[in-house]
Specification:
Elements (H helix, E strand, L loop, with lengths): L21 H32 L20 E2 L24 E3 L1 H4 L16 H4 L3 E4 L8 E4 L25 E5 L5 E3 L1 H4 L7 E7 L8 E6 L5 E5 L5 E3 L1 H4 L7 E7 L8 E6 L11 E3 L4 E2 L12 E5 L5 E3 L1 H4 L8 E7 L8 E6 L5 E5 L5 E3 L1 H4 L15 E4 L8 E4 L9 E4 L5 E3 L6 H5 L4 E7 L8 E6 L20 E5 L4 E3 L12 E7 L8 E6 L5 E5 L5 E8 L11 E6 L4 E5 L14 E6 L4 E7 L5 E5 L6 E5 L3
Parallel strand pairs: 1-13, 32-38
Antiparallel strand pairs: 2-31, 3-4, 4-5, 5-6, 7-8, 8-9, 9-10, 11-12, 12-15, 13-14, 15-16, 17-18, 18-19, 19-20, 21-22, 22-23, 23-24, 25-26, 26-27, 27-28, 29-30, 30-31, 32-35, 33-34, 33-36, 36-37
């Protein structure tokens, strides 16, 4: 799949350099020069005489020398192989206990992402768009924020930047009304945005009880918007010193040093600009988007919030400034159960990052020793979306990463000793996921049976892929994988997930507060989907945390729920995960047929514990941190 195209030979190519024996080479060259000079001395008089005797000829028009066309810079794309045969035995599907219905049009969510595709195949065109679920007006109903592209010239002149002035390129905020429908409040909220936007991260960074918004973007277009509480957001990027250069992708809020103030982590994709990205990739017949191997990586950025509300870049000091990363997805969890939040960053065709929090303000990348840096064959893969949750209910947080077609989606099972086992094959994921390319993803209990399932928003990165293969499609349907307790089975078709999409970002949360997880999917250069979960006839428990100090959402808390049958489920509170997206931070605990919950144990950030006994089920509870 990943065959290299031969680039034209450059002047710096080794084939154009001097031979190793330069003395011999110079001697031969010097001899030729002496012989040429002797010849010119002997023949010059004859040439002069001949020219004097010759009759003058009419002046001939001068033919201009032909202009040499600069050699086209070429690079490697994802696919140059001849068309392959279509798969004859697709993975079998099973019945689904839940169904999803697209209600975007019904609810008035009419957002369409505008990627501004060009003939140059600039990479940002195919990498958007992001989604965030947040209750920005604190009315108890989730609202939806979408990131958008910007106008690109074809080609982009040197020094120019993406242009967001046209309203079709604005980021969009949809407020949910009491009747469940949505209204576009973008202009009133001041969230039109700047530049080519990518990811979004919702969180109350200043601890005032109102959810703020960070928007990552290409070319330093990232912005931090403070929620003023009157329906308007204020751009405080410069004021808070949260400028992030380069190509920001996914981002998230967490309190890594347990000081009660939220910090910001921003994944960055590559060292890329429009000049470097104008490589010609693909075949002579079909130009395609370039493979990330053509470009250098970019380190993630960790911004630590100081007591005065401004931020400082501590990436290098904290040990996360690895320039080999090509970050697309990020999730936070306490993988080693030491009470400190760790970071997993999904990287595109590079080693995955697992930054273990050492507790002294520093992280160490343990991806290699933990066994999550590469796939089971020791190869890199196109890590894009990522989520973390305890899928097998053993009390340890596992990791799921999406990848490209022909790679399968890695599932890393936490062994509890600092290592992980590659569980894609043993859980049935290999034959199901091999044809697909995944982006936004979530490990969540969609049918409330007490086991975390997997949802993936899908679509290939190349809009030209069907011209070069016979079985991989550009638009692909979403994937719902039901957890049976022994393996994952594909229930997508019976769940109503048959529409092919060019999906990218996906955010997950309970939009209608009915106790199940709904999904909002953004397509690159396409319309959005709002997928309402029909729910299953199972019991559930909803939990929202309210921190006592600056971390008002309790991000980073560890919650353990024990039901009436003795079953235990573990959750880490976070809005991060998926791809370019921000999720509902509330917890939905599936109970299946269990009719009661014994205890809810909460370990707040900083280590303080709190227990809730026998809470009512099939409803939401707000648990406030005891001072």
């Amino acid at each position: 799949m990943k065959q290299k195209s031969a680039p034209p030979r450059s002047p710096g190519d080794p084939a154009n350099q001097l031979p190793e024996n330069t003395d011999t080479f110079m001697a031969a060259t010097q001899g030729k020069a002496v012989r040429l000079l002797r010849c010119l001395v002997l023949t010059a008089p004859a040439l002069f005489c001949a020219s004097a005797d010759a009759q003058p000829s009419p002046a001939q028009p001068q033919t201009p020398a032909p202009q040499q066309t600069p050699a086209r810079r070429t690079g490697r794309s994802y696919e140059t192989a001849p068309p392959a045969r279509r798969q004859t035995t697709p993975a079998p599907q099973s019945p689904s206990p839940v169904t999803f219905t697209d209600v975007a049009a019904q609810l008035g969510v009419n957002f369409r992402h505008a990627a501004s595709p060009t003939s140059q195949k600039y990479l940002p065109e195919t990498m958007g768009a992001g989604v965030a679920l947040l209750d920005y007006d604190a009315d108890g109903r989730l609202d939806i924020f979408f990131t958008n592209g910007a106008a690109l010239s074809d080609p982009m002149p040197d020094g120019s930047a993406p242009d967001k002035r046209d309203p079709r390129f604005w980021n969009r905020l949809f407020r949910q009304k009491p009747d469940g429908a949505f209204e576009d409040v973008t202009e009133r909220a001041g969230l039109r945005g700047e530049g080519y936007s990518m990811g979004a991260a919702a969180g109350d960074f200043d601890g005032d009880g109102r959810t703020d918004l960070y928007v990552a973007g290409f070319g330093g277009a990232g912005r931090l918007y403070r929620n003023r509480g009157d329906g308007v957001f204020e751009d405080v990027t410069q004021k808070t010193k949260t400028v992030v250069t380069g190509w920001g992708t996914s981002a998230g809020w967490f309190d890594y040093d347990s000081d009660g103030r939220l910090d910001l982590f921003v994944a960055r994709y590559m060292d890329w600009d429009f000049r470097a990205g104008s490589l010609y990739c693909g075949s002579t017949e079909v130009r395609a988007y370039c493979h990330p191997d053509n470009f250098k990586g970019a380190s993630p950025v960790l911004l630590h919030q100081k007591a005065d509300g401004t931020f400082e870049d501590v990436s290098a000091r904290a040990g996360v400034a690895d320039p080999e990363g090509k970050g697309l997805g990020v999730v936070f969890a306490d993988f080693d159960d030491d009470g400190r939040t760790d970071i997993f960053q999904a990287n595109d065709n590079a080693r995955q990052f697992l930054f273990r929090n050492k507790g002294d303000g520093k992280f160490e990348d343990v991806s290699l020793v933990a066994g999550v840096g590469y796939d089971e064959n020791g190869k890199s893969f196109a890590g894009m979306g990522v989520d973390a949750a305890d899928y097998d209910n053993d009390g340890r947080v596992d990791v799921f990463v999406t990848a490209l077609s022909n790679e399968t989606y890695p599932l890393f099972r936490n062994n509890g000793d600092g290592s992980f086992t590659y569980a894609t094959g043993t859980t049935g994921l290999s034959p199901i996921t091999v044809p697909y390319s995944g982006w936004g993803a979530r490990l969540a209990d969609f049918d409330a049976d007490g086991l975390r399932d997997i949802f993936v928003a899908q679509g290939h990165v190349l809009d030209t892929i069907e011209k070069t293969t016979g079985f991989i499609l550009y638009r692909q349907p979403p994937l719902l994988l039901r957890n049976t307790g022994k393996a994952f089975v594909n229930v997508s078709a019976s769940a109503g997930l048959a529409r092919p999409l060019a999906a990218r970002g996906a955010a997950f949360g309970d939009l209608d507060n009915d106790g199940d997880t709904d999904v909002v999917i953004a397509q690159t250069d396409g319309t959005t989907l709002v997928l309402r979960n029909s729910g299953a006839k199972n019991h559930w428990l909803g939990l929202g945390l309210a921190g006592a100090k600056g971390n008002r959402q309790g991000l980073g808390a560890r919650v353990t729920v024990t039901d009436s049958g003795g079953g235990r489920q573990v959750f880490d509170v976070t809005a991060a995960g998926s791809y370019l997206s921000s999720n509902d931070a509330r917890l939905i605990v599936g109970l299946g047929s269990r009719t009661a919950v014994r205890t809810v144990e909460i370990r707040w950030p900083g280590g303080r514990t709190q227990t809730l006994n026998s809470p009512a089920i099939d409803t939401y509870h707000t648990v406030r941190e005891q001072p």
